[in-house]
Each structure stands twice: as structure tokens, then as C-alpha cells.
Write a sequence for this structure.
């Protein structure tokens, strides 16, 4: 399934690939989700745009997953251009590792195309992050995520760092402090948000 709807918002599922293997990820076999988001193959940009159409019902469209959408950055940008042509608000939900994935700072490429980026911080320090999320980039992922969020503030109107409510309250508060220091919004997500 390439697109799906939750609470009146349209979500785009471009890839099942991810640089993390989070212990709480709904992709793991033991978790359930109301839609089947496993893709037989990754859809082409044209297929995604065809499926979105004019999206008349929706104010906002979100690049999300079953995977990390920034892995397909050039395709995401093309689809976002279409979404801006049809006057949609665009959000990206990401694990924040795009600069590591692409080996360069990519936030500026989203300017004028993305209205809100929600970046999963998930832990207050590199070791806890790696224990929870198992990034293929190792412990350096944590600082890269914070740096990416700070860079996004230059180009994207709304930047949120988020955590999932599977971590202890004390850890959530430390993450809130990181977001405050970075200058982003902060959100605690329910596990399947
Ligand atoms: S970053 Fe998201 S898609 Fe990737 S493993 Fe973690 S929860 Fe799953």
C-alpha cells in the first residue's frame, strides 16, 4: 500500500528500508498495524503522484513509512513538489539520519517543500539511542540527529524532536531539555503514532 489515511491525514509509504532497527518498530513481526504497508517493490515517483492525485480530501500529506522516507530523498523532493503544486501542507516523519545517509547536509533541499519535519530523537544519549534503535551508523547517529534538527530550523517552518512513550519519564524529560536547547518543538508519541 503506497498511501493510507489516519485521522483525516494522507500518509505516503515510499520505502520499507530503514537505517534503524528500533525495538518498538511496528515493522517487527510481533507488532500489528491496521494497514499492510509491506511493499513488493518501491513505487516509482509517477506511481506515487498518480495515487495521491489531487488529494482533495486532505489538508496535510505526510511522508512516513514503514521505513525511512529520507532514504529516497530525490524522489521525496519530486513528490513534495507535486504536493506544493496542489497546495498541500507537507510533513516528513524521519529518523533524522539523512545527513549520514547522504554524506552531506540535506536540510536546505527541503526548503519551500516541507512545512513540518518530525524527527525521532528517542533517547537522551548515544548509548541509550543505540540500545533502543540499533542504527547502522552506530552511536554517532544520536548527535547527527540533533545536528540535523538544528540545521532544519534554518529551512523548515516547524521542526519537532519526538520520543516514543516506551522510555522512562526521566529519559523523556532529558530529551525535552535537548529539544529546548536545540530550539525545536517537542512531542511525546504514543507507540503507534
Ligand atoms: S526509525 Fe522508524 S521505521 Fe526505522 S526502525 Fe525505527 S521505528 Fe521503524
Amino acid at each position: 500500500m503506497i498511501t493510507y489515511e489516519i485521522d483525516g491525514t494522507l500518509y505516503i509509504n515510499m520505502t520499507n528500508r530503514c537505517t534503524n532497527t528500533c525495538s518498538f518498530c511496528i515493522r517487527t513481526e510481533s507488532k500489528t498495524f491496521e494497514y499492510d504497508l509491506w511493499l513488493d517493490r518501491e513505487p516509482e515517483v509517477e506511481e506515487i503522484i498518480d495515487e495521491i492525485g489531487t488529494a482533495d480530501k486532505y489538508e496535510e500529506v505526510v511522508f512516513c513509512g514503514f521505513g525511512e522516507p529520507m532514504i529516497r530523498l530525490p524522489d521525496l523532493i519530486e513528490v513534495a513538489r507535486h504536493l506544493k503544486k496542489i497546495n498541500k501542507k507537507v510533513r516528513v516523519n524521519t529518523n533524522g539520519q539523512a545527513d549520514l545517509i547522504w554524506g552531506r547536509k540535506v536540510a536546505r533541499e527541503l526548503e519551500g517543500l516541507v512545512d513540518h519535519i518530525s524527527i525521532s530523537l528517542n533517547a537522551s544519549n548515544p548509548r541509550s539511542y543505540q540500545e533502543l534503535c540499533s542504527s547502522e551508523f552506530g552511536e554517532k547517529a544520536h548527535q547527527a540527529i540533533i545536528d540535523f534538527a538544528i540545521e532544519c530550523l534554518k529551512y523548515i517552518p516547524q521542526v519537532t524532536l519526538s520520543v516514543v512513550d516506551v522510555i522512562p519519564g526521566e529519559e523523556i524529560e532529558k530529551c525535552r531539555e535537548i529539544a529546548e536547547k536545540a530550539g525545536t518543538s517537542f512531542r511525546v508519541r504514543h507507540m503507534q503514532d
